[in-house]
Amino acid sequence: MALERGTRKVPSAAERGPVSHALFRVVRLHRMLAGQLLRDLGLHRGQELLLMHLWDSGPVRQTELIAVLDSDSATVTRMVQRLEKAGLVERTPDPLDGRATLVSSTSAGDAMRTEIERMWHDLEAATVGDLPPATLAPVLDALATIETNLATATAKSV
């Protein structure tokens, strides 16, 4: 028999993983909304995270972006190419290693900061809704624990 969680039934096959099922649903909806908000800015999911890192760090090698975004080389390469085509980032030779290139935000990329910050604010407001501020710290603590647990499990399986 399927369990009821909020307004959703947990499929009987997922009854042994109600937290995982809830996370799957929440993450899917969060990604959908983030994608919608980013499309309004002319961006795809993840591109804003790349720009955020560049704003904080300045020019970096693409290998650093791969690590920071926890992504693969091909995905980050396509992301950088699209952002470069849009005029938001540029690639220049690394003065310390002629074989490497540095990726940096352009003035157009820097100009996106306010819009991206607003987008993240809107995403956060939609995500937390009317949750009382006092409940947010425990939610963040629980999510940090879940992230640690999943990172540990992922590292063990690699």
From TrEMBL:
Keywords per UniProt: DNA-binding, Transcription, Transcription regulation
UniProt key word Transcription: yes
InterPro entries: HTH_MarR-typ, Tscrpt_reg_MarR-type_CS, WH-like_DNA-bd_sf, WH_DNA-bd_sf
Top-level taxon: Bacteria
Keyword Disulfide bond: no
Domain HTH marR-type: 16-148
One Pfam family of this chain: MarR
Protein name as annotated: MarR family winged helix-turn-helix transcriptional regulator
